[in-house]
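Allow me, if you will, to draw on your knowledge of protein folds for a short while. A protein sequence and the structure tokens that stand for its backbone fold form the material at issue. I would ask you to consider whether the tokens describe a fold that such a sequence might reasonably adopt. Thank you for your consideration; the sequence and its tokens are set out here:
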Amino acid sequence: MKFEWKKQEKNLYLPKEKPNLITVPQQNFFMISGKGNPNDEEFSEKIGILYSLAYAVRMMPKQGYTPDGYFEYTVYPLEGIWNLTEEGKQSNTLNKEELLYTIMIRQPDFVTQEVVNNAFENVRKKKNHPLLDYVNFETMEEGLSVQMMHIGSYDDEPQSFEQMKKFIEENNLKRTTLKHREIYLSDARKTEESKLKTVLRYMVFYR
């Protein structure tokens, strides 16, 4: 049976529209970092590179190579970790040029360095994009986190963040870092802005 993260991992990817506490396990990612406005062309190109690698792994059996432990699955959604430069933090308004980000796509547990190398090789054969040199494969473990579903424009996310901050305060928690995580469940190119679904997440610990 095909593994579908929307069904088998609802707790991670389909939270309610109010904050809740969750423990996020160790996960593997293709990731690439940068600075600047996410509306810029370079940001779109980075997303394209990540998806090229993700689908290269997904389609490997059709290319004649089946990794050990491989199973049918749905490619995971795009995620992003966001922060601001020191200059950006001092501003009273959000300057998107001062955004720092790491965008990523999660990979199944069967993905080893050998599988990663194979994926890079396959993508380079089709299009040897210079941004491939900046993509890393890393393991992350967020652990205890507060998350919620945000529905609507990305620019309206501060309203949801305020709910999360209130939840953190009321439950004797504290943020581990000023960075926050976003998981994009909607394709912004095809979805009406008011219907965009984004999982928002803060890493936390008990005071």
